[in-house]
Amino acid sequence: MHIRSPVRPMLAAVIDEIPPPRSCPGGCRYEPKFDGFRAVGIVDDDGAVRLTSRRGTRLDEAFPEVAAAVRERLAPGTVVDGEIVRWGADGRLDFGALQRRHAAGRRGAELARTEPCHYVVFDVLETGGEDLRPRPLRDRRAVLEALLGGAGPSAPVVITPQTADVDEARVWFDALVVQGVEGLVVKDADGPYLEGRRRWRKVKRRTITEAIVGGVTGTRQAPESLILGRHDIDGRLRVVARTTPLPPEARASLGDVLRHAGADHPWPAELPAGFAGGPYGSHPPIRYVRTEPETVVEMSADAAVEEGRWRHAVRFVRIRPDLLPSQVPLFGT
């Protein structure tokens, strides 16, 4: 019987800069932040495997090849924490493929052969009847390396890279973005595993770019957030992102320049949630006010882009009165 179940994964708070090693108790440990499905892997005392999401949803039916690999690599009575990922043919992480796999349900066995996924493990919570949560990360990492350290990089279950060298971490931060790696997770070497607590830190790689305001939540005079678009190669305005809540000064300045849309605005009166961040169908439709698509703004966005849209909310930076909508990058670029 497991020591503690169900498991509530430890979480990470967002920070803007990579912290120096001395800022963490016992020194910082840096790991790539993979863009996938967070999953706790549990091998019970009889060898049966459960993969559960951050919210406790079972994932083993959707990803049977991952469950089988966990069963093969880990002994009964083991609990690990990690990320299910899918590498695309172009060598980038493909979050859309993960969503298709999850939605497929019982077709998971079929897709496991054509779109196989991997499990990147970054922590171990239990093994051999011992609760490792109170032990420092450095000790848990040593146990994890003993469990999975011999696996090659192409194995279906692998241990995540980790370094104590901040210069190496900065190289990862810059170089791995081309593979769809979002940034870094920073952990205290002396830190225990605190279920449900936001005690790790994550730094996301961000890009400054431009988009066109096509609508707002709130009112045109005092917008709360922006719905942003870009034109595709055929000239259609496509939704690409939604901003985080705007600061008061931005609300005032945008309210002075935005105009209500005319009858020819290309977007519907309501938008599915997946059109402006988040998975499709996960939230009610977005109610918003359409505005004339003539105002260009600068935004700060992370690397989580799926089919031309940013999955996570972007940050408003400033209005760009010097740019025309035709000068904004095209949809998908």
From TrEMBL:
Which domain of life does the protein's organism represent?
Answer: Bacteria
Please report which protein family the annotation says this sequence is part of. Answer: Belongs to the ATP-dependent DNA ligase family.
Q: What is this protein called?
A: ATP-dependent DNA ligase
Reactions this protein catalyses: ATP + (deoxyribonucleotide)n-3'-hydroxyl + 5'-phospho-(deoxyribonucleotide)m = (deoxyribonucleotide)n+m + AMP + diphosphate
Arranged from A to Z, the UniProt key words for this protein are: Ligase
Taxonomic classification, please? Bacteria, Bacillati, Actinomycetota, Actinomycetes, Streptosporangiales
Q: What are the residue boundaries of the ATP-dependent DNA ligase family profile domain, all occurrences included?
A: 119-214
Q: Which PANTHER family match?
A: DNA LIGASE 1, DNA LIGASE 1/3 FAMILY MEMBER
Molecular function as annotated in GO = ligase activity
Tell me yes or no: is Ribosomal protein among this UniProt entry's keywords. no
